[in-house]
Specification:
With 184 residues, this protein is an alpha/beta fold. The protein has 5 helices and 5 strands. It has helices at 2-18, 24-38, 99-104, 107-113, 146-172, and strands spanning 43-53, 73-80, 86-94, 123-125, 136-137. A hairpin with a 5-residue loop joins strand 2 (73-80) and strand 3. The radius of gyration is 17 Å and the shape is globular. It starts with a helix and ends in a 12-residue tail after the last helix. GO terms for molecular function: hydrolase activity; metal ion binding; nuclease activity. InterPro entries: HARBI1-like (IPR045249), HARBI1_animal (IPR026103), HARBI1_dom (IPR027806).
């Protein structure tokens, strides 16, 4: 646990060097790369959440960390671009928090909703856990025609990028598969 703590502290010191809003050139490149995947236009990022198991925290708020699978966890929100680079990350939410809530309480939400918008124009793709916004597209829950079905296929083929990003993170940092103790 001491090695994990030292590693995380080292990463957090360098966090701004690697995780930051993309430059305009990067945005345009990402839009083209996402469009090449499945023809989905104007997408510069994808969003999803993932649960990281933790040891039950001491105290009265222990139950807020229990997720829908009855496991203690932190629900981590990731926004990535087409090259699997992390554009935004929120790793402070208890496991019981829904993806929608984490997004609405995040700095990323404020940047996307602000006037003027702090992030360049473009779309983010998310799964059905997220709200539909001018800048956030989700799939049709019940497609009723061929166009909606094609939209969902294109959406899914593009949004899988963030799932790959999370998979790469968890393979690279094997400790994310085990139960972490954030209190050390």
């Amino acid at each position: 646990s001491l090695i994990v703590k030292r590693t995380m502290n080292a990463l957090l010191r360098r966090f701004p060097d690697f995780i930051h809003p993309p430059a305009m050139l990067d945005i345009n490149r990402s839009i083209l790369q996402f469009q090449e995947m499945a023809g989905f236009p104007n997408v510069f990022g994808c969003i999803d959440g993932t649960h990281i198991k933790i040891v039950a925290p001491p105290g009265n708020d222990e139950d807020v960390y229990v997720n829908r699978k009855n496991v203690h966890s932190i629900n981590v929100q990731i926004v990535c671009d087409a090259r699997l680079r992390i554009l935004d990350c929120v790793a402070t939410s208890p496991g019981s928090f829904h993806d929608d809530r984490i997004l609405r309480e995040s700095a990323f939400w404020r940047a996307m909703e602000g006037e003027p918008r702090a992030v360049p124009q473009g779309l983010i793709l998310g799964d059905s856990a997220y709200p539909i916004r001018e800048w956030l597209m989700t799939p049709y829950a019940q497609p009723i025609n061929r166009q909606q079905e094609r939209f969902n296929v294109s959406h899914k083929s593009t949004r899988v990028t963030v799932e790959r990003c999370i998979g790469v993170l968890k393979r690279r940092w094997h400790c994310l598969h085990t139960e972490l103790d954030p209190h050390y």
